[in-house]
Design a protein that fits this description.
six-stranded parallel sheet, EC 5.6.2.4, alpha/beta, seven-stranded parallel sheet, RecQ_Zn-bd, DNA repair, zinc, 709 residues, binds zinc ion, binds adenosine-5'-diphosphate, nucleotide-binding
């Protein structure tokens, strides 16, 4: 059995060996047994049911909660030459009848369905009349009522056990905790399932947390090493998402915003672009993520602190699904601690709930202030023991210096106390440093015994100390929202001299920005390889556009990278590259060999030109200048600008540099009549020779999109 499985793996998927426990899982399910699979994101869950599906007779039924995920998997399978289909609400009645007929004729191997579809009585009796190879229940944690992805329809999936007693069932999830696991077993009637638990470590992710000083500058330094990589930047608020996205675009890093406040179609459009194009940065709130299967997200950056380690692990886990190096980078500072603690105190909900949230936030904070291996800490939180430091996080690589902060900490606590437990860190530091300013004088704080006692430390050292005091719960943040600090019981032993305090020494920000933004992920492709790498990616993009699929469905980055490194020159050599199965070899082998042989000039994909155009327009270039830069006609530029304006990717002001008065005149011309907007041709007569026709297209697009809002 395993031998057969191995053959399918190589022939169809083009991979040489199974990862982790894939082999055992496949053997179990292919031979008719049930399985419960817990694997982290990117662990390779799909193969665990796709390979048995191909080994067994009949139709494999896959339950998946999200249409986007289904479509992605179906496209991937079709590229591999496997007959797969998704049955969902986007199909017309006729398409559905057609699909049912194909299934009856045995022409479909894998059928993807939403749970609510599957449990319809008509659907179930349809399936009962067929030969079913297996049921795979993806994202099985959706059955848990306590989890955040609860889907009531999942509860009904338990009946499959009784209705199809001889059909093996495999449930899969990336959610780690025990309670969810037991719930899946009970509710899906999987008592006989063999359990396959994998480590939740993501070895290819490099974790780094830096003290937040000038976050935008720090982010730019980080990004500078990662040009043309795709990544996600998480921010707490919608406003900040939009500001950061605009800032990055201005700085020449193509970035899109994503948050729950954007119109639905714009959000969907941005998400689609992120999946289909390369090198885009998504700046997002936590609303972005569910169902994002893009494998080559090379970094996940946090500009604000997540509320829990669960959230941090899940968000950072969206990087590096393809197994190649990826970065989890976060800038974290005093303000984060103060803000989150305040939000928590003022949140709705009962005391028990608040305590739980508090506990989660504390765990997150202690990861930030951790002096030992980050990965060990993270895994320990999820009850997994990692005996040795990982060697693949900032603390392991850079080492952490600590210092005895007992005395300064006492001074800091004393400053809080003596100023009346109501001032924020800024003022407290001023007092400790003995600053002579108006606020100090107006409160008479220059007369306090703590005034000026802290001159041995710099301002940033004091701020770092206060941050760590609050993070460790040695000082509290006020409830009123002014960021004032106060003492609590836990600081008593320190004040009384019963304990000492060891704190982390922050690196100087200049040092962090320059030297520590490099990581294995940032050096994935070496300088001399860059040109050929881009050529391979360009070919992939072109093929993806032709086939209407995301680029990674053609080949994942890992496969392109292996081509780059092994430089195959014949089809036989190409077949040995991991990820090149029989079907793809036949379809694409020659084209990629040509690029590797340097025979073809890489085509510039349409999507890329659009992208560049938007960036250039936002940077203030005129249409004529853009035409020069992109080497296309000015008319063409106007057409693309109008399109971007229509999609609200650009404002009229960004796209054109018309004098205000003339712009008003053009707009009036369009708005003069009643009802429908007049066509460009109708208006063109009025402005013949005064403005290029392209301008009229842009103005019309802007007005039209306003009307549609
Ligand atoms: P998950 O669903 O667990 O997040 P996927 O099934 O999407 O993970 O797999 C992640 C990536 O790893 C995919 O690109 C997949 O093709 C690849 N992959 C899975 N198993 C193997 C394997 N045995 N060898 C090489 N690549 C693999
Ligand atoms: Zn480590």
């Amino acid at each position: 059995m395993l031998e057969q499985a191995q053959r399918v793996l190589k022939d169809i998927f083009g991979y040489d060996s199974f990862r982790g426990r894939q082999g055992a899982i496949i053997e179990r399910v292919a031979s008719g047994g049930d399985a419960l699979v817990l694997m982290p994101t990117g662990g390779g869950k799909s193969l665990c049911f796709q390979v048995p599906a191909l080994l067994r007779d009949g139709l494999a039924v896959v339950v998946s909660p999200l249409i986007a995920l289904m479509d992605d998997q179906v496209a991937t399978l079709e590229e591999l030459g496997v007959a797969a289909a998704a049955l969902n609400s986007t199909l017309s009645a006729e398409q559905q009848r057609d699909l049912a007929a194909r299934i009856k004729r045995g022409e479909v191997k894998m059928l993807y369905l939403a749970p609510e579809r599957l449990v319809q009585p008509r659907m179930l009796s349809f399936l009962q009349g067929l030969n079913i190879a297996l049921f795979a229940i993806d994202e099985a944690h959706c059955v848990s009522q306590w989890g955040h992805d609860f889907r009531p329809e999942y509860l009904q999936l338990g009946q499959l056990a009784e209705m199809f007693p001889d059909v093996p069932r495999i449930a899969l999830t990336a959610t780690a905790d025990k309670r969810t696991r037991e719930e899946i077993v009970t509710r899906l009637h999987l008592q006989n399932a063999e359990r396959f638990l994998s480590s939740f470590d993501r070895p290819n992710i490099f974790y780094r947390i830096v003290p937040k000083e000038q976050p935008r500058k720090q982010l730019l330094a980080f990004l500078a090493e990662r040009r043309s990589d795709a990544g996600i930047v998480y921010c707490l608020s919608r406003k900040k998402v939009e500001e950061v996205a605009a800032f990055l675009s201005e700085q020449g890093f193509p970035a899109l915003p994503y948050h729950a406040g954007l119109p639905n179609d714009l959000r969907a459009f941005n998400q689609k672009r992120f999946l289909n194009e390369e090198g885009l940065i998504m700046v997002a709130t936590v609303a972005f993520g569910m169902g994002i299967d893009k494998p080559n997200v090379r970094f996940v950056a946090h500009l604000d602190l997540p509320k829990s380690l669960e959230a941090y692990y899940q968000e950072t886990g969206r990087g590096g699904r393809d197994g190649l190096p990826a970065d989890a980078w976060m800038a974290y500072g005093l303000q984060d601690v103060v803000m989150l603690k305040q939000m928590l105190q003022n949140s709705e909900g009962d005391e028990r709930h608040k305590r739980l949230e508090q506990h989660k936030l504390d765990a997150m904070l202690s990861l930030c202030e951790e002096t030992r291996c980050r990965r060990q800490t993270l895994l320990a939180y999820f009850d997994e023991d990692m005996p040795e430091p990982c060697g693949h996080c900032d603390n392991c690589v850079d080492g952490v210096q600590t210092w005895d902060a007992t005395e300064p900490a006492r001074q800091a606590l004393s400053a809080i106390f003596r100023t009346g437990q109501r001032y924020g860190v800024g003022h407290l530091v001023d007092v400790l440093l003995g600053k002579d300013n108006e606020k100090v004088r107006s409160f008479g704080h220059q007369h306090l015994s703590v005034y000026g006692v802290g001159k041995a430390l710099s301002e940033s050292e004091w701020r770092s100390l206060f941050r760590q005091l609050v993070a460790r719960g040695l000082a509290d943040v006020d409830h009123e929202g002014y960021g004032g600090l106060r003492l609590n019981d836990s600081c008593r032993p320190l004040l009384k001299g019963e304990v000492t305090l060891e704190l982390r020494r922050d690196l100087k920000p200049q040092v962090t920005a320059k030297t520590t933004s490099k990581s294995p992920a940032s050096q994935l492709v070496r300088g001399e390889e860059r040109e050929q790498w881009e050529a391979l990616r360009a070919l992939r993009r072109k093929l993806a556009e032709e086939h209407g699929v995301p680029p990674y469905v053609i080949f994942p980055d890992s496969t392109l990278l292996e081509m780059l490194r092994s430089q195959p020159t014949t089809l036989a050599e190409m077949a040995r590259v991991s990820g090149v199965g029989a079907r793809k070899l036949e379809r694409y082998g020659d084209a990629f060999l040509e690029v590797l042989g340097g025979e073809t000039e890489a085509p510039k994909a349409v999507a890329d030109v659009r992208h560049e155009l938007i960036t250039l327009a936002r940077a203030g270039m005129t249409p004529l200048q853009i035409a020069g830069q992109l080497q296309c006609s000015e008319k063409n530029v106007y057409t693309m600008l109008a399109e971007a304006i229509g999609k609200q990717q650009l404002s009229l002001e960004q796209a054109l540099d018309l004098p205000e008065e003339l712009m008003g005149e053009v707009q009036d011309a369009f708005l003069d009549g009643e009802g429908e907007l007049p066509s460009v041709a109708e208006v063109a007569e009025l402005f013949a020779g005064r403005v290029p026709e392209g301008v009229l297209y842009c103005v019309r697009a802007a007005l039209q999109s306003e009307f549609e809002m």
